[in-house]
């Protein structure tokens, strides 16, 4: 049992590191270029769903406790993770609808839409902030796990992916089904009245911003600055709140 838990922990930290690195690259499309940004956006779904499968037992246990109204200490973490999951779906769906490079390769073309562009940019920014909070909530575990990690030799734990997928086959199917249903719901938002209004406002803002020239070097630097700021500040504030709560308990 201990060996199994160790293997699971190792796999989890490797997947999380992979997800984090890919996410940073995905969040700076101006620096990587749109084609790389879009292809990596599809690739990142793999460690994202694997992360959920590795933590599936925690998800199901907390869900049962919530139904029985027995969840207390981890209630915020549970609800927050659901918000993070839904936000990831919004970023993905909006990104697919405005795809300029990846989907056209397969002959799939969507009409440019200011609503989805605005939604994609806003949800991506919110995701950065939420990711910062998520990192702060699990910072102790992250630091301890990375200290124990032997990067080259521990890559062997990636072999456990097939075991996890086989073991959690039903969970994977449920997760994919839920993600598809929620994604369709997100996509249908485009046909709401307020979405049409946002489209008009976003189109006007886009035209105004297009008139403002931007220095070439800023195009590459600003995305990195944005990611750093929106990731770090929420993480630091969350860490501060956690420290204050611990002191108050004492």
Characteristics:
250 residues; mainly alpha; globular
Write the layout of secondary structure elements.
Elements: H1 2-26, H2 29-32, H3 34-43, H4 45-54, H5 56-67, H6 75-97, H7 114-137, H8 139-148, H9 160-167, H10 169-188, H11 193-210, H12 216-249
Helix pairs in contact: 1-3, 1-4, 6-7, 6-10, 7-11, 7-12
Describe this structure in words.
The structure is a single chain. With 250 residues, the chain is mainly alpha-helical. The chain has twelve helices and no strands. The protein has helices at residues 2-26, 29-32, 34-43, 45-54, 56-67, 75-97, 114-137, 139-148, 160-167, 169-188, 193-210, 216-249. It starts with a helix and ends with a helix.
Question: Gist?
Answer:
Helix content is 79%, strand content 0%. The chain has 250 residues and is an all-alpha fold.
- In whole angstroms, the N-to-C terminal distance is 35 Å
Shape assignment: globular
Order of helices and strands: HHHHHHHHHHHH
Low-confidence spans? none
Helix % is over 70%
Number of helical segments with 4 or more residues = 12
Strand content: under 5%
**How would you characterize the largest beta sheet?**
none
Structural class estimated from helices and strands: mainly alpha
Mean pLDDT: 85
Give the radius of gyration.
Answer: 20 Å
Give the strand tally: 0
């Amino acid at each position: 049992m201990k060996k199994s838990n160790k293997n699971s922990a190792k796999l989890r930290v490797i997947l999380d590191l992979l997800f984090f690195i890919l996410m940073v690259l995905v969040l700076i499309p101006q620096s990587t270029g749109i084609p790389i940004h879009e292809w990596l956006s599809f690739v990142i779904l793999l460690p994202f769903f694997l992360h959920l499968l590795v933590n599936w037992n925690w998800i199901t246990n907390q869900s049962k406790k919530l139904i029985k109204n027995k969840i207390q200490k981890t209630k915020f973490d549970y609800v927050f993770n659901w918000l993070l999951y839904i936000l990831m779906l919004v970023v993905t769906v909006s990104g697919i609808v405005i795809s300029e490079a990846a989907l056209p390769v397969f002959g799939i073309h969507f009409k440019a839409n200011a609503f989805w562009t605005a939604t994609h940019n806003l949800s991506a920014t919110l995701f950065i902030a939420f990711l910062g909070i998520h990192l702060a909530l699990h910072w102790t575990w992250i630091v301890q796990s990375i200290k124990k990690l032997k990067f080259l030799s521990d890559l062997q734990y990636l072999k456990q992916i097939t075991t996890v997928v086989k073991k959690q086959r039903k969970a994977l199917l449920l997760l994919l089904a839920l993600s598809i249903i929620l994604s369709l719901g997100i996509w249908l938002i485009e046909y709401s009245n307020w979405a049409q209004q946002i489209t008009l406002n976003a189109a006007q803002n886009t035209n105004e911003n297009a008139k403002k020239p931007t220095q070439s070097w800023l195009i590459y630097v600003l995305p990195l600055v944005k990611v750093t700021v929106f990731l770090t500040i929420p993480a630091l504030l969350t860490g501060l709140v956690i420290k204050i709560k611990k002191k108050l308990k004492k």
